[in-house]
Specification:
It is built from 18 helices and 13 strands. The strands form three sheets. It has an eight-stranded parallel β-barrel with strand order 1-2-3-4-5-7-10-11, surrounded by five helices. Strands 6-8-9 form a three-stranded mixed β-sheet. It binds 1-deoxynojirimycin.
Length: about 500
């Protein structure tokens, strides 16, 4: 009787149905032939060569040099993986992995050192042309992010993403990139993770929490839309590519089945995914954001909502500007309802007004506190996108696991890839979600922002103590290679 009761209890008190009670079978369905497997990186995190060949400083060069203490191991990415110089070696590794695509980002500071389009740095442009050519010669599709956190410092000095001219600066930069590389690029990403850029990754003096986050978000959406319209009006017919904004976050699992917790989780989904997704797919901020921020702003003594209103013209400009849905996702957060947070200084967290925490009995990344191994959350998340955003084509632009050592024997990463992909395949098969590709973060161990080199996400190890930055394949890379080549997760698959 007791074991039975325990089982019932597990199923009723836990919304983690199968994580605690039973382990799901790995999918044995082959991924479709045109499903694209890839690996990804970003410029600041791997390139190094921070001041070579006319490149100017990004906000990350500037901040890591000025205040090394903001990085856990006091490091910076001046050299990182040295990929600016070693790009051919990286492409050879991608080739060995058997990937169909490589997602990387362009350093704005290499292409336009003044931040503006008045001076195009041909050496920087040629570097990326060479990288793209090398990829194409090896039958690897380049997928290119225009902006991945490394804003030119000269633009930050002018207010960065808080300046209403930011969308115009971004559009001018995008034009140079479409003109220079567009004949060879079929998948463009405008901005990587605006949520991060407008919250934790947002380096600016005097940021006012709960105010500037929302201004930054509006400018990111306008910048993204400007690049999308530019591409659509002037480049698409000739170059035939697609362009999307890369959104990120977790699946939000209600802490219990209570109506309050379910609403709390739905609220957090809208405040994080919907913050950017809703304007793009519906044309305005999610209602719950408008209502809660207006309500709290009033009680805090503001004359108007801290969430900037979008005009009808802006709504129309932003709506419909995603050719597919690009997603970075790694884990699941549990969400619980709480009393309304007290009225004091404004903040995004208080605006959301829920308790969000991590699963305590899931495998935890030894180096990233936010990263837990919760593969089933990704299936729920994908189904949510299908229902919420009119069944879009979804490209997973990032997903991966971090340890602290970079060890070659990386079984947890291998299992992570296996189980996450299995849930993705189930979402396609059983929930009818249109996932078109998967991209592993990351090709290489690299500079993990505030964690420096203490967190290792690569499926390939980089020896940062060697001037050669020697690359060595980890165990997971051999598994991932098999998946990329066979489109199958297990020994034998069926169609
Ligand atoms: C998201 C970001 O795009 C990437 O830069 C970062 O390194 C990974 N997630 C892991 O945190």
């Amino acid at each position: 009787m007791l074991p039975f009761l325990y089982f019932v209890l597990l199923l009723t008190v836990s919304s983690f149905g199968f994580s605690l009670a039973e382990k799901p079978q790995l999918s044995n369905k082959t991924f479709p032939k045109n499903f694209s497997f890839g690996a990804t990186t970003s410029a600041y995190q791997i390139e190094g060569a921070w001041n070579l060949d006319g490149k100017s400083q990004s906000v990350w060069d500037n901040a890591t040099h000025r205040i090394p203490g903001i990085i856990k191991d006091l490091s910076n990415a001046d050299i990182a993986c040295d990929s600016y110089l070693k790009y051919k070696e990286d492409v050879a590794l991608l080739k060995a992995l058997g990937v169909q695509h490589y997602r990387f980002s362009l350093a704005w500071t290499r292409i336009l050192p003044t931040g503006f389009a008045d001076e195009v740095n041909e050496i920087g442009v040629n570097h990326y042309k060479n990288l793209i050519r090398e990829l194409k010669n090896n039958q690897i599709q380049p997928m290119v992010t225009l902006y991945h956190q490394d804003l030119p410092q000269v633009l930050m000095d002018r207010g960065g993403t808080l300046n209403p001219l930011f969308p115009k600066w971004f559009e001018d930069y995008a034009r140079v990139c479409f003109e220079s590389f567009g004949d060879d690029v079929k998948h463009w990403f405008t901005i990587n993770e605006p949520y991060i850029d407008c919250t934790v990754g947002f380096i600016s003096g005097g940021l006012r929490e709960g105010i500037d986050n929302y201004i930054c978000a509006k400018h990111h959406l306008m910048a993204h839309a400007a690049a999308w319209h530019l591409y659509d009006n002037e480049f698409r017919a000739r170059q035939g590519g697609k362009i999307a904004l890369v959104l990120n976050s977790d699946w939000m699992e209600p802490a219990s089945h209570s109506a309050e917790d379910v609403t709390a989780a739905a609220t957090r989904m809208q405040f994080i995914w919907g913050w950017f997704g809703h304007p793009i797919y519906y044309g305005d901020w999610p209602d719950i954001m408008k209502t809660r921020i207006a309500m709290r702003s009033k009680l805090e003594g503001f004359n108007e909502s801290r969430l900037p209103e979008l005009t009808q013209e802006e709504i129309a400009y932003i709506k419909g500007t995603n050719d597919f849905f690009a997603v970075n996702t790694y884990t699941t957060t549990i969400v619980q309802a709480i009393e309304e947070p007290e009225i004091s200084s404004p903040s995004l967290d208080k605006d959301i007004g829920v308790n969000a925490y991590q699963c305590s009995d899931c495998i935890a990344s030894p180096s990233m506190s936010w990263l837990k191994f919760v593969p089933w959350g990704t299936r729920k998340l994908l189904k949510w996108f299908k229902d919420e955003y009119f069944n879009p084509d979804i490209l997973i632009t990032e997903n991966g696991w971090a340890d602290g050592t970079g060890q070659l024997d990386d079984d947890v990463r291998e299992n992570y890839i296996k189980e996450y992909l299995s849930n993705i395949r189930d979402a396609m098969e059983k929930d009818g979600v249109k996932v078109i590709g998967y991209t592993l973060w990351s090709l290489l161990d690299n500079f993990e922002w505030a964690s420096g080199f203490t967190a290792k996400f690569g499926t390939i190890q980089v020896d940062f103590s060697s001037p050669n930055r020697t690359r060595t394949r980890k165990k997971s890379s051999f598994y991932y290679e098999r998946v990329c080549r066979t489109h199958c997760l297990v020994g034998t698959c069926e169609e």
